[in-house]
UniProtKB/TrEMBL annotation:
Domain DUS-like FMN-binding: 13-266
The protein's name in its UniProt record: tRNA-dihydrouridine synthase
Cofactor: FMN
Any Pfam family the entry gives: Dus
Keyword Hydrolase: no
Enzyme class: oxidoreductase
GO MF terms held by the record: flavin adenine dinucleotide binding; tRNA-dihydrouridine20a synthase activity; tRNA-dihydrouridine20b synthase activity
InterPro entries hit by this protein: Aldolase_TIM, DUS-like_FMN-bd, DUS_fam, tRNA_hU_synthase_CS
EC number: 1.3.1.-
Species for this entry: Maylandia zebra (zebra mbuna)
UniProtKB keywords: Flavoprotein, FMN, Nucleotide-binding, Oxidoreductase, Signal, tRNA processing
CDD domains: DUS_like_FMN
Length: 296
């Protein structure tokens, strides 16, 4: 029997609240720079918000030294279930600052960072995980993962592309090799757009779970088996956004993604031009109907 954890990465509290209603098992925060988080109260208040229903929650950090990561982990530990070290972000700003995917070439540092979190967070159940990309020479990736495992890493998420690759096919064979090389759980990431992809990726790789971001942006109900965003999910997003005071830009931006596959180009043009929450709600009611219509 397949036991697969469905994970959603890198969005703020309101959207995490939405995907949790549709079978998402674990949510991650966006990537937070650990040094800034420790230095600035403003950064802590703006980058990390949660509530009692937002669990299990993994806080994703960018860091390039072990003590900063451990200190940040200790700060968020009372409000979360684990931290994840981002070793996969390929953006130029992150790599030039020593964060993200450049860390896959520093296995000893990654090992040290994982060990520091393990040693300094006073909770044996608190997780310390990493998210990586793969090397062209997969032996380097296996070495990195085995070093992280020796330091006590809780699980490893593998985005099956190299640092240079963006939209090329995911290397599922590489993910399988990594899965076969370590005993800790391995999570696959990359090009998961439908629930059926979860089963096929599991069969290809034997992984313990999958992580999605863009697929859930387009359809937050994907893990519940919906091919496209259902109307109920759209209205759930409206309710959550109003309740939590989500800024209009964020509220509107997520709806643009959700409606892309279920609306025509003229409809999208009109919707994208809307500039207030009330205008969006009126448009949704007039175009798709209300939640009450679902029950009649």
């Amino acid at each position: 029997m397949m036991l697969t954890v469905l994970i959603f990465i890198s969005f703020r509290l309101a959207f995490r609240s939405l995907v949790r209603k549709y079978n998402c098992d674990i949510c991650f925060t966006p990537m937070i720079v650990a040094a800034d988080f420790l230095r600035s109260i403003k950064a802590r208040d703006s980058e990390f918000t949660t509530n009692e229903r937002d669990r299990p929650l993994i806080v994703q950090f960018a860091a390039h030294d072990a003590q900063s990561l451990a200190d940040a982990a200790c700060a968020v530990a009372p409000f979360s279930d684990g931290v994840d070290l981002n070793c996969g972000c390929p953006q130029r700003w992150a790599m030039s600052a020593g964060y993200g995917a450049c860390l896959i070439n520093k296995p000893e540092l990654v090992k040290d960072m994982v060990r520091h979190v393990r040693n300094q967070v006073d909770n044996p159940n608190y997780t310390a995980s990493i998210k990586i990309r793969i090397h062209k020479d997969l032996r380097q990736t296996v070495d990195l993962c085995q070093k992280a495992e020796s330091a006590g890493v809780s699980w490893i998420t593998v985005h099956g592309r190299t640092t240079e690759e963006r939209h090329q096919p995911v290397h599922y064979d590489a993910i399988k090799t990594i899965k076969d090389s370590v005993s800790v759980p391995v999570i696959a990431n990359g090009d998961i757009k439908y629930l059926r992809d979860v089963e096929s990726i599991h069969k290809l790789t034997g992984v313990d779970g999958v992580m999605a971001a863009r697929g859930l942006l387009a359809n937050p109900a994907m893990f519940a088996g919906y091919e496209d965003t259902p109307l109920q999910c759209i209205w759930d997003w409206v309710d959550i956004s109003v309740e939590q005071g989500t800024p209009f830009t964020c509220f509107h931006h997520h709806l643009i993604y959700m409606l892309e596959r279920v609306s025509s180009q003229p409809e999208r043009k009109v919707f994208n031009s809307l500039s207030s929450t009330s205008a969006v709600i009126d448009y949704l009611q007039n175009t798709y109907g209300s939640v009450h219509d679902l029950k009649t």
